Amino acid sequence: MQKIFFLFVLFPLAGFTQDLSNWQHLDPETDSILGISTYKAYEYLNGRQTDTVVVAIIDNGAELTHEDLAGKFWENGNEIPDNQLDDDGNGYVDDINGWNFLGNPGGSNLKHETLELTRLYAQYHNMYNVDDSASFDTLQLAEYNKYLEIRKNYEDEVSQKKAEVALYRQILSGYHVSDSIIRKRLKKDVYTEADVGKIRSRKAEIAEAKKIILTFMALGIKQEVLESQIIRLTNDLNLKLNPDLKSREEIVKDNPDNLTDTIYGNNMLDVMGPDHGTGVTGALAALQNGTGIDGIARTVRIMILRVVPDGDERDKDVALAIRYAVRNGADIINCSFGKKYSAQPEFVRDAIAEAERKDVLIVHAAGNDSEDTDKTRYYPSGLLQDGRYARNWITVGASMPYDQEDLVAGFSNYGKTTVDVFAPGYGVTTCTLDGSYNKFSGTSISAPIVSGVAAVLKSCFPHLTAPQIKEIIIRSAYVPRTTLVQVPGKGNNTGVELSELCVSGGIVNLYRAVILAEQEYCDLQQGKSNSDPAIVNQ
Q: Residue 42 has what pLDDT?
């Protein structure tokens, strides 16, 4: 089943008795929480002189007016605001804080898009909906076989969604019938669990209604939640899985298959409810001012690039956003999105290669499908044309607060060679819309935590290169005391070493990274090279 990990997942912190409102900043040793030791790192740095670092967040936009992000956004000093001119000649008019690749110059903006699976299905279905495979040459036969695979996956996805809609409607119908019976029995429209529990009747329908309503109450299932699930799934069928949806053509009006068609979009970065991008930005850069929440990086400016709709992002938009970030001075790029299919992976691959040449680090969320990404590829990936992984690419999985068997979040993707490190990604409090805050979960929140660590390193040690920062993050990861951990999606009876689930075998740690970077930086200044991994365990 095609799954999207762009959206955060909201979970209660079940069973947690400690105050974990800022747990991602705590220290594994002194606090017994698998945070990244943010406060300990800043205590050690003790006001050290730092440079300002630019981090580009490629996402669905951000709330620029959130009070906990005041003064944190990058400003294009070569552009005069609101004069309707491209003053700096970079191809984007009035791009003061970044660019929105999901709009048009007239101010209309795209919210809904199809899945890449849907787009590929529509493309190949037009070509191969009639079985004429007997006359195909080798290339056509390969494409036809690919179409058959895509068609099966697409049809399975549609069937799954329809089955879920039918199930929820059945459950909701049962609730409505039972609720009506209980209200009639109690002779009131509002009742409590105690009221229902006191009902005694030999009538089968009343006994069954009582059982159903008590089950709903015990599980905390509400009518409005079921209704919202039906709406969400129906929207998925009508929008994300609709091969005839033309929202891109009607709103953006570019050719998404032509990378040279770049005259589209606008500078509207806070449109269409950018809750996801606001949360990502908050985790990385929220003001450390004693109110709201604390981000990771202090001397940082955030460049906002809007490319992710409610649906799958287009490869062209991602590629152009990466190039925009690289060519406009970003040091780090955060990518908290992904998908299982890619129509033009070469677009993004070439942009990543350009970022590597320009020494820009890219941090990518691993995904929330409990998948082994060594076996199942997600896009974008750091795999380049020559078959090697880009040295400036780091992939992040999600970890839990406690050093115990389930320290890897059960939803997180993993990979011994394709996921580099884990980072806090469960119940992390961050910024959301209308100046508010909420707890969110997902590798989408883990990635900006690592981007924040990278930003601190670059700020304190500006001569470190992107590959060096990646190496330091991996080598300085905190190795938990728990020997065997559960593999996401495999049940509670499986146990492997954490090094089987990621390259570093650990959780990102800012304090340890600063210590290692300081040693690495000093050695580099002296013309030495330190590659002794033992230093990370000091």
A: 96
Q: Helices in 101-197 by DSSP H: which ranges? A: 116-128, 138-186, 193-197
C-alpha pair distances (Å), 471 with each of 284, 386, 417, 465? 20, 21, 14, 10
What does the pLDDT look like over 143-176, one tens digit per residue? 999 999 999 999 999 999 999 999 999 999 999 9
Query: d(Cα 151, Cα 164) in Å, to the nearest integer?
Result: 20
Q: Which of 206, 240, 274 is the last residue of a domain?
A: 240
Three-state SS across 458-478?
HHHCCCCCHHHHHHHHHHCCE
- Residue 391 inside a domain? The answer is yes
Q: Do 219 and 195 belong together in one domain?
A: yes
Q: How does the average pLDDT of the chain come out, rounded?
A: 92
Q: Is the pLDDT of residue 529 over 60?
A: no
The values of phi and psi at residue 67, to 5°, are -65, -25
State the Cα–Cα distance between residues 281 and 509, nearest whole angstrom. 19
3-state secondary structure of 320: helix
Return d(Cα 79, Cα 62) in angstroms, integer.
20
Same domain for 120 and 102, yes or no, is: no
Per-residue model confidence (pLDDT) at position 525? 52
Pair (92, 128) in one structural domain? no
On whether both 384 and 302 belong to a single domain, the answer is yes
| Mean pLDDT to the nearest integer, 79-103 | 96
Q: Classify each residue of 409-420 as buried b or exposed e, where b means 16 or more C-beta atoms within 10 Å of its C-beta.
A: bbbbbbbbebbb
Collapsing DSSP states into helix, strand and coil, what is residue 470? helix
* Residue 255 is assigned to a structural domain of this protein: no
By three-state DSSP, how is residue 9 classified?
strand
In whole angstroms, give the CA distance from residue 41 to residue 208.
59
pLDDT(533) > 90: no
Distance CA 86, CA 265 (A): 13
- Evaluate whether residue 412 is within a structural domain: yes
- Asked whether residue 5 is assigned to any structural domain, the reply reads no
Q: Is the dihedral of CA 508, 510, 512, 517 positive or negative?
A: positive
Indicate the pLDDT class of residue 433, thresholds 50, 70 and 90.
very high
Q: Give the CA dihedral 484, 494, 36, 530, nearest 10 degrees.
A: 60
- Is the pLDDT reported for residue 195 higher than 70? yes
The pLDDT of residue 16 is above 60: no
75 neighbors 200 (Cβ within 8 angstroms): no
The SS3 assignment for 215 reads helix
> Average pLDDT for residues 105-113, to the nearest whole number?
96
Q: The dihedral of CA 92, 306, 334, 1: what is its sign?
A: negative
Q: Does 528 lie in the same domain as 389?
A: yes
Distance CA 536, CA 538 (A): 6
Question: Residue 199 belongs to what domain range?
Answer: 116-240
